[in-house]
Amino acid sequence: MRQKIRKGVLTLTGLFFPVLFLWLSPFIIVIAASHGIISASAIMFGILFLISLIGSRLFCGWLCPAGAIQDQVAKSNDKPWNSRGKNLSKYVIWIIWFSFIIFLWIHHRTFKINLLYLCGINKYIVIIYFIVVMLIYLFTLLTGKRGMCHSLCWMAPFMIIGEKAADFLHIPRFRLKANSESCIACGQCNRQCPMSLNVCKMVKNNDMEHSECIFCLECVDVCPKKSIQYGIRKSNKADKRQD
Question: Are 36 and 112 in contact (CB under 8 A)?
């Protein structure tokens, strides 16, 4: 039932992506910054960072419209796309992109907040939207499951940095926890994971910390032995230091 609800919510956000695009666009924030404007997408990325301090990457697994598109594309190409190099590329892109935005804001110095900047239907917004959607669709089709999340996503780094900040500040956040003793290594968690993570190995090592985990809870729901739990807690490393 939980996965039906999650997938239903994702489908809904995917359908509303044309409306939500103003709040999630990697292009509009740049265009706005070039005029010294803090747009809705800039505010949204800040909110995603703050939410991740407690909610980790729940947005990616439950609400992201780009994730909804990728999950549909995975029906055509469900090959795994997950490695250190592939995951690293999004950080390189993000650093260049975000640094350019900061430069533009500093260059203009006077900041104006306009949450409705470029709001409306015109040919430029339609073209930008089409480019973003086709990039998500084609890249995922060519690479595999959630390929865009691994290699290109402009939103994931905000939340991953939020997770790291929460751990550094010892703030309890949403996490998975494993019971390796009950695991029978059936591999169902690996097959169901939309991020192509080796969940079985993570369970066996009693270490469920992974920056690419989007907390969709597929592994929790598919495990026949209920070896994976979830909740809001501090990191295991923090607990060990306290012990």
Answer: yes
> What is the topology classification, in CATH, of domain 173-242?
Alpha-Beta Plaits (3.30.70)
Say how far apart CA 141 and CA 34 lie, in whole Å. 33
Whole-structure pTM value: 0.92
Rounded CA Rg of the chain:
19
243 residues of the chain, pLDDT tens digit each: 999 999 999 999 999 999 899 899 999 999 999 999 999 999 999 999 999 999 999 999 999 999 999 999 999 999 999 999 999 999 999 999 999 999 999 998 877 999 988 887 788 889 999 999 999 999 999 999 999 999 999 999 999 999 999 999 999 999 999 999 999 999 999 999 999 999 999 999 999 999 999 999 999 999 999 999 999 998 866 444 443
Residues of the chain with CATH 3.30.70.20: 173-242
Do residues 223 and 188 lie in contact, with contact meaning Cβ atoms separated by under 8 Å?
Answer: yes
Give the other-Cβ count within 10 Å of 237's Cβ: 12
d(CA 58, CA 46): 15
